[in-house]
Design brief:
alpha/beta, FAD/NAD(P)-binding domain, seven-stranded mixed sheet, 23 strands, globular, binds flavin-adenine dinucleotide, binds nicotinamide-adenine-dinucleotide, nucleotide-binding, oxidoreductase activity
Length: 449
């Protein structure tokens, strides 16, 4: 350990990013992890994992209903029992904080509960204790942004949604990004009335409009009401505990809960970054190509960073492993990100990776687009996925795959195959080398390309 410091590396935040860094460093460095909420961070406690447990339940119901009159009896009886579904989720989430703490202890990683704030470039304060370290990794993640309107304190967030002990009759959701669409789908499939208020006229702005339009239509068919170009101006509590939501065009609506889903902002206010010479902007901590902040002994990773690439769990852990390897001098080159796939779990799923459809359309000399409605293909007909649509984008000259968009019930798996092909610089000509399982998502790849 470096002289005069308590630790070699202090990691602030025990989410997927911080933990990936801490475990990689632990074999040869003295490491402390500081956490001020649930050990494990957002993804396993209030994010991806609990969300996908609820999604798995409602998807089973949706898929059972698809087979109504197609060989399955009793589908009209299939319904979601909200309290049991939440208990199922807790059977996983209840174990996360304790399991994470004991994992740290058994790897000889010190851990302290509390909020870290910098006093100077080498010292943080947690409650009244000071911890000095040669290096720091900021891995404090993000928290939901709340619209600044009268009654804002009445907003709930995705965290409360995923923990609601009983099923409400109705919910309002402000925003139409990842969080809004995923919770809307879980809620509507569970028999909750859902209204979405979106300040423009589309959902999921990072995905191509021809795919998001189709997904919005599917959600509308399920019963979701979209209020397009609608700005929410005020929330007010009512004596019976409901919430009245007003919009700028003088309409009012009443719900049991209203959820803010207008984005997430880096969790950095409590850190007193200025005391350590770390600069930030509205997106989070500013870092260079080595994930290093403006103070060269302080790194930042995951959702706490100001960056244009997606803020996702595998990205946070990838950055955590990179920074640890950089500190251990196993890596000296700037961080390079492979193609990063992303998926909205909305029954069906919408996935995207690589060069976008818009980028490809803007450069027809360079890219070739194959955009196909595949609902009638055997693989999609078998699961009655009539609306399935898949676009592949290839580099015109080489024929290598550079991008893909998938709207289907197996999109999360298919996009992983496409991602592998993009990273391995493969195209249609490489597929005959493979013998996939038939029938499966992989066996469709050669037709899709
Ligand atoms: C509802 C929801 C669903 C999601 N679904 C997916 C999905 O399906 N797939 C996917 O890839 N991503 C998903 N995400 C995003 C994913 O959860 C995040 O990208 C990921 O958790 C980021 O990891 P992180 O380590 O950067 O931060 P976090 O997981 O947020 O961890 C940061 C930790 O730092 C702690 N902390 C903050 N400030 C301090 C401080 N001053 N002192 C001490 N500790 C502090 C926090 O309490 C937190 O535990 C979802 C997010 C949400 C909200
Ligand atoms: N499946 C996944 O991978 C997954 C799931 C959930 C969250 N996440 C991560 O969490 C991040 C945050 O998700 P999110 O849905 O909160 O943010 P988002 O950026 O995906 O969407 C925000 C939405 O709110 C709208 N909006 C913004 N300001 C508004 C306002 N004042 N009034 C009404 N609408 C407004 C935007 O137009 C957009 O539709 C995602 O970007 C993603 O990185 C990922």
């Amino acid at each position: 350990m470096a002289n005069n410091f308590d630790y070699d590396v202090v990691v602030i935040g025990a989410g997927p990013g911080g933990l990936a860094a801490a475990y990689t460093l632990s074999s040869s460095k003295k490491v402390l992890v500081i956490e001020n909420n649930l050990w494990g961070g957002t993804c396993p406690n209030f994010g991806c994992d609990p969300k996908k447990m609820l999604y798995s339940v409602v998807e089973s119901k949706r898929q059972a209903n698809q087979y109504d009159e197609n060989g399955l009896r009793g589908t009209s009886e299939v319904s979601v029992d909200w309290p049991s579904m939440i208990k199922f989720k807790q059977s996983y989430t209840d174990k996360i904080p304790g399991g994470t703490e004991s994992g740290l202890a058994s790897s000889n990683i010190d851990h302290v509960y509390g909020t870290a704030q910098f006093i100077d470039q080498h010292t943080v304060l947690v409650d009244n204790n000071k911890y000095q370290s040669k290096q720091f990794i900021i891995a404090t993640g993000a928290k939901p942004s709340i619209p600044e309107i009268p009654g804002a304190e009445l907003f709930d967030t995705s965290t409360e949604f995923l923990a609601m002990p009983s099923k409400p009759d109705s919910i309002g959701i402000v925003g139409a990004g990842y969080v809004a669409i995923e919770i809307a789908n879980i809620a509507i499939e569970s028999g909750i009335k859902v209204d979405i208020f979106q300040h423009n006229d589309r959902i999921l702005s990072g995905f191509p409009a021809e795919f998001t339009g189709k997904l919005a239509e599917l959600l509308e068919k399920k019963g979701v009401t979209f209020h397009w170009n609608s700005s929410v101006s005020q929330l007010q509590g009512t004596p019976d505990g409901s919430i009245t939501l007003s919009t700028n065009d003088q309409q009012t609506y009443t719900f049991n809960h209203v959820f803010a889903a207008v984005g997430r902002g880096a969790n950095i206010e409590s850190l007193h970054l200025d005391k350590a010479g770390v600069q930030s902007n509205h997106g989070g901590v500013i870092v260079n190509q080595y994930q290093q902040s403006t103070a060269n002994n302080i790194f930042a990773i995951g959702d706490a960073v100001s960056k244009s690439i997606p803020k996702l769990t595998p990205v946070a852990s990838y950055e955590g492993r990179y920074v640890a390897d950089f500190i251990l001098e196993r890596k000296t080159d700037p961080i390079i990100f492979p193609a990063i796939p992303h998926t909205v779990f909305a029954g069906p799923e919408l996935s995207q990776v690589g060069v976008t459809l818009n980028e490809a359309k803007d450069d027809p000399q360079k890219y070739q687009i194959k955009n196909q409605s595949v609902g009638s293909w055997y693989s999609y007909h078998r699961v009655l996925d009539d609306s399935a649509q898949i676009a592949t984008i290839t580099d015109g000259e080489q024929g290598t795959l550079v991008g893909a968009v998938v709207l289907s019930s197996n999109a999360e798996e298919l996009i992983n195959y496409f991602t592998e092909m993009i990273n391995d610089r493969k195209g249609a000509k490489n597929l005959p080398d493979q013998i996939p399982v038939y029938p499966s998502a992989a066996s469709d790849l050669s037709y899709l390309m």
